[in-house]
From TrEMBL:
Keyword hit for Signal: yes
Composition-biased stretches (Polar residues): 82-91
Protein known as: Alpha-L-rhamnosidase
Keyword Ion transport in annotation: no
Source species of the chain: Amycolatopsis eburnea
Domain Alpha-L-rhamnosidase six-hairpin glycosidase as annotated: residue spans: 406-626
């Protein structure tokens, strides 16, 4: 290209408005910040009430809300000698809390609501419970008390009438835990048969569960309840200001949910779910006024217990008590409440805490960036024994440290795969990387003797995942790039070597590819516990990226020979991937060389980012990924041969590298479209704002109420927009060198700042008509390259350039104008 020295002076371009840029305007990004203004968080409204609740606005601090309930009448009982049989029942076990529990059919007629019959044919029907009375019983109907872990939805009730079985009642679409079933006519009988043909499918499984069948129609006084809405997902310790109560210690039950869909008597997830608990928090209210802070533990022994910290949007408060909490708490009386609030424990991301920010001409992109930042803040919290995942996740080595949990409500454990995304979001928004470093260092400290690094502290650092040691490598390189903390790299260099030179070679086959199944890894999982085996593109492409990152760590710590060796290995793996796993018929990389033919979002995206794919392969693979586009994102598989919903399930975690690949392959507008479909869907559906762990068929929460609706691994829109749309990225530790390479697509302008150890690196660009303008201000003592669109004229700081390509500059402020 031939350059002309001066066609239009810079001043002329600016004065004409052709290169107008918002760079000098007052930043307006603060209005997008989502976090509450203080740690004392109040609900924004009362959504609903049932039963006797007076002045519900008292829950918002507007006077006093009063809950009243009369004592329920005694339940009817079966004649002595009544028994029950069933088509099947689950074997006894310890019930998740070490206490023996049985599930035999007799539990449905024993008068104890804490025991229940549980069939043993998950998702298979019919399930039949037959009750034989000890003497003829006169029945207008029966009342079925089921279980909040899943109620029978469709069932019939038959009675033995005149020696013949007949259907006395049919129920369809049931959602009530306690359901009174009236018969078509009263009958005196000795046998009742309940046949279930459909149950709720819950995270606890699709089973028929019946706690009690009472002989008669039970109409308890309605439970007074109120649902309050905090406006968005929050996390911390709920508090209730009680203005007093009746003298009988009435019980209050609390359940929590991120969505209204899964709000019921039982929370959508609580730690007690994994220890055989009730799934709700209980408190026996004293007569005198008091402020109760929801704290993990029990008021007396093992009775009247609570979980403490919760992540939720909606809170259901009811005047009720578990039968097992009698006599300490009663399901009747009067309770007066003068306010509900929350002690917010996560990182509080107010405008003054942002060390990096982003803004553009596209309002939706701005909202998604700050919503994802808030999602990440909800998981950035102190590691505490009282509120981490109860499945063996507590670790004294993390206790009291700031960490990046994977989610606000669950698992509340730091996973390194999640840190691979949430760490980037942390570096680009608020903080110097301490939370990510604490996690990375702790996992390395628990490295296994053979070099494998655990994914998290869960199961006492033993959860066997195949890919997560690779994420430890890439996340360590990202941490050093953004923080400049080469001392960390030096401290854990031996761990890096052991992972890459001992463990991964032990699972490498004769073609030089990682193959899950070697060295006893057949039962290992990955980020989604997918049943993949053999040579998997995703594992191998991530391996290449890990080797490339390891080479950077090696050079930063004075080990150039290791860097060269690892890069040579990366080239060999890349060549083997292309030779063995590229599917020319589909124009994409196979998910696995073993089993059914399919093509994964994770493997193809990572292959592009690793440089395995040529430009033409990248274009073809991205077209393949877009072919199954859904209103709520791009699915993670192109068919359903691996899992039944592969073409319907969307992960923001695996979508993030696809977004990066699209930006870097010249498909900025397709990346923006994908962002808007995926993050736009989550923003528009309950609970709003925060980014979900996964999206399922029809745009649902992919694991129902178990799904985390505020998950750090889904915050990739932050680095995608800052690193790729705005274009700012480090290229050596601590931003000693950097690049600004905007990928604007159709966005008119963008600006932002990225924190570095030497101060903020800011960039602002705009495009109007044929002119593109970029201004960069970088800390002194650093240098970088500016990558801008080609044009007829390029001026750097007012001087026309004679050559095309990246523009190398030192720290300070620089402006580039391009006339295209």
């Amino acid at each position: 290209m031939k350059w002309h020295r001066a066609i239009l002076p810079v001043a002329v371009l600016v004065a004409s408005g052709v290169a107008a840029t918002p760079a000098d305007a007052v930043p307006g990004w603060q209005k997008y910040v989502v976090a509450p203004p203080s740690r004392d968080v109040r609900p924004v409204k009362v959504l609903s009430t049932t039963g006797d609740v007076a002045n519900p606005d008292g829950l918002l601090g507007r006077g006093v809300a009063t809950f009243k309930r009369q004592a329920p009448p005694p339940k009817p009982v079966w004649p002595a000698g009544t028994t029950a049989t069933a088509s099947s029942f689950h074997a006894p076990n310890n019930g998740g809390n070490g206490q023996p529990r049985t599930y035999d059919p007799g539990n449905a007629v024993d008068g104890n609501t804490e025991t229940f019959w549980n069939d043993d044919t998950i998702g298979a029907y019919p399930d039949v419970l037959t009750i034989t009375a000890g003497a003829p019983a006169a029945l207008p109907g029966v009342t079925v008390l089921s279980n909040v872990d899943g109620v029978p939805q469709d069932f019939t009730v038959e009675v033995l009438d005149g020696g013949v079985w007949r259907v006395a009642a049919s129920v369809t679409g049931n959602t009530a835990v306690q359901r009174a079933v009236a018969f078509d006519r009263a009958v005196t009988t000795t046998q009742v048969r309940i046949t279930v043909t459909k149950d709720q499918n819950t995270p606890s499984g699709e089973f028929s569960r019946v706690a009690e069948v009472w002989p008669g129609l039970v109409a308890d006084p309605p439970v007074p309840t109120a649902v309050v809405d905090f406006g968005k997902v929050v996390a911390g310790y709920p508090k209730i200001a009680f203005a007093g109560a009746s003298a009988n210690r009435p019980g209050v039950r609390l359940s929590f949910s991120e969505t209204l869909q899964y709000l019921g008597e039982r929370s959508d997830f609580t730690r007690s779910d994994f220890s055989g608990g009730p799934g709700s928090d209980q408190y026996a209210v004293p007569a005198e006024p008091t402020v109760w802070r929801d704290t993990k533990g029990c008021q007396s022994g093992t009775q009247v217990c609570a979980d403490g910290l919760h992540g939720f949007r909606y809170l259901r408060i009811s005047l009720d008590a578990l039968a097992s909490d009698a006599p300490l708490a009663q399901p009747s009386g009067e309770v007066r409440i003068s306010g509900v609030s929350l002690d917010f424990t996560p990182f509080l991301g107010t405008p003054d805490t942002y060390r990096g920010w982003f803004e553009s001409s596209d309002d939706a992109l701005n909202r998604y960036w700050y919503a994802a930042s808030y999602t990440n803040e909800l998981g950035m919290d102190t590691f505490r024994e009282s509120d981490v995942d109860p499945r063996g996740a507590f670790s004294p080595s993390l206790d009291g440290k700031l960490v990046l949990h994977d989610g606000a409500k669950r698992d509340r454990d730091p996973y390194v795969g999640d840190v691979a995304v949430s760490g980037l979001t942390q570096y680009l928004t608020h903080q110097d990387g301490t939370a990510a470093k604490n996690v990375l260092a702790d996992l390395a400290d628990h490295q296994r003797a053979d070099g494998w690094i655990p994914p998290a502290s869960i199961n006492d650092y033993t959860l066997p995942l195949f890919d997560y040691p690779l994420w430890w490598v890439t996340s360590s390189w990202d941490y050093v790039l953004y923080s400049g903390d080469t001392a960390y790299a030096a401290s854990y260099y031996s761990h890096l070597v052991k992972t890459l030179d001992t463990w991964y070679p032990s699972v490498t086959d004769s073609r030089g590819l990682l193959a899950k199944g070697l060295n006893g890894t057949g039962g290992y999982g990955d980020y989604a516990f997918l049943p993949r085996t053999g040579e998997v593109t995703y594992y191998n492409a991530l391996y290449v990226r890990a080797l490339q990152g390891a080479a950077g760590l090696a050079r930063a710590t004075g080990h150039p020979a290791d860097a060269d060796r690892w890069l040579a290995r990366a080239s060999g793996v890349a060549a083997a991937v292309n030779a063995s796993l590229w599917d020319p018929a589909a124009g994409a990389y196979l998910d696995s060389g073993t089993g059914a033919v399919r093509h994964g979002q994770d493997g193809n995206s990572q292959a592009i980012l690793a440089g395995i794919a040529s430009p033409s392969q990248a274009t073809s693979a991205l077209a393949r990924l877009a072919a199954g586009a859904l209103p709520y994102g791009n699915p993670f598989m192109d068919n359903d041969t691996l899992v039944s919903d592969g073409t319907k399930r969307v992960y923001a975690f695996t979508s993030f590298p696809e977004l990066q690949a699209r930006f870097r392959s010249g498909q900025a507008d397709s990346a923006i479209d994908q962002i808007k479909r995926m993050y736009g869907w989550m923003a528009a559906h309950d609970p709003g704002i925060t980014a979900w762990e996964g999206i399922g068929e029809g745009g649902s929460h992919y694991e129902q109420g178990y799904t985390s609706a505020a998950h750090g691994w889904s915050t990739g829109v932050v680095p995608a927009l800052t690193n790729d749309l705005l274009g700012v990225s480090p290229t050596s530790p601590g931003f000693a060198t950097w690049t600004v390479a905007p990928h604007p697509g159709s966005v008119a302008w963008a600006r932002g700042a990225v924190p570095t150890p030497k101060g903020a690196l800011s960039a602002s660009w705009s495009q109007q008509g044929s002119v593109f303008s970029l201004t960069v201000s970088a800390p002194r003592g650093t240098s970088g390259s500016l990558v801008v669109p080609s044009g007829r004229l390029v001026l750097l700081d007012g001087r026309p350039l004679r050559a095309a390509g990246p523009l190398t500059v030192s720290g300070g402020t620089h402006t580039v104008l391009v006339v295209r």
